[in-house]
Write a structure and sequence with these properties.
Number of helices: 5
Helix content: 10-25%
Number of strands: 13
Distance between the termini: 39 Å
Shape: globular
Order of helices and strands: HEEHEEEEHHEEEEEHEE
Strand content: 35-45%
CATH architecture: 4-Layer Sandwich
Structural class: mainly beta
Radius of gyration: 16 Å
Oligomer: single chain
Number of domains: 1
Largest sheet: 6 strands, antiparallel
Length: 237
């Protein structure tokens, strides 16, 4: 698979929706992840990321403008021991609770499907990072309607063992803008990951469409020690 430029992938797509990037820093010492949200409606754009324990949650920037919290207020990131969970919805909690009961990432998601927001039927995208004994692996999942037909749910899981330095995978909810919005297709895209968290955060944020971007979360975890650094950027300040 050819490595793509994450900068060009984002700059060339005005509306990828919500996106997850997971990989390893170019120097091979950090497990890296990023999650961004975008919005077209006032309700979707009225959000910020805030830290919540070791994870984050979404919050209304202006509570008076919050019309429907059901699909926009959730915890995108939670930490369970040596596992970091990143998703685009409240399935973060489903994965956390399932894995806490010794279920696998894939098993935990069996009780969920795409979002009930027809005609888009937005895919649920999820990622899990696992660090143990100086080793690191990760997996990604997408739950989507059967080519826009909500009577079927197609489930895909992609697992990456011993990922290479400087490489990551990028999955997002929509192929591009549209009406209805077309769901992501294919396997996660192979993209580049930088060494420096601040430089990578800046690159991602500046590459997202200015009108539609809402918030960005980036975390680098030291593979040897488990210590992490987090960056959050919100368009609404």
């Amino acid at each position: 698979m050819k490595m793509l430029s994450i900068e060009q992938e984002l700059k060339g797509n005005a509306y990828p929706g919500r996106g997850i990037i997971i990989g390893k820093s170019a120097d091979g010492t950090k497990a890296a992840c990023a999650y961004f949200i975008m919005g077209r409606s006032t309700n979707s754009r009225n959000r910020i990321f805030v830290e919540d324990g070791e994870g984050i949650r979404t919050q209304a920037f202006d509570p008076a403008k919050l019309s429907d919290p059901s699909l926009i207020i959730y915890a995108p990131v939670r930490v369970l021991g040596n596992k970091t969970i990143v998703t685009n919805g409240d399935q973060t909690d489903t994965i956390y609770e399932g894995m806490d009961k010794q279920m696998t990432f894939e098993q935990s998601l069996r009780s969920r499907e795409f979002e009930p927001d027809g005609p888009n039927y937005t895919p649920r995208i999820s990622g899990i990072m696992h660090l143990e004994g100086g080793g690191y692996n990760y997996a990604m999942s997408i739950l989507k309607s059967n080519n826009g037909d909500p009577s079927g749910c197609n489930r895909y899981t992609f697992a990456y063992e011993n990922p290479a330095a400087g490489e990551g995978h990028f999955i997002h909810t929509y192929m591009h803008d549209g009406d209805p919005l077309p769901s992501f297709e294919g396997e996660p895209k192979l993209v580049d990951v930088a060494d420096d968290i601040d430089a990578y955060t800046k690159l991602l944020w500046e590459s997202l469409n200015e009108e539609n971007k809402v918030s960005l979360f980036v975390r680098y975890i030291d593979i040897a020690s488990g210590a992490y650094e987090t960056r959050i950027v919100n368009k609404n300040q």
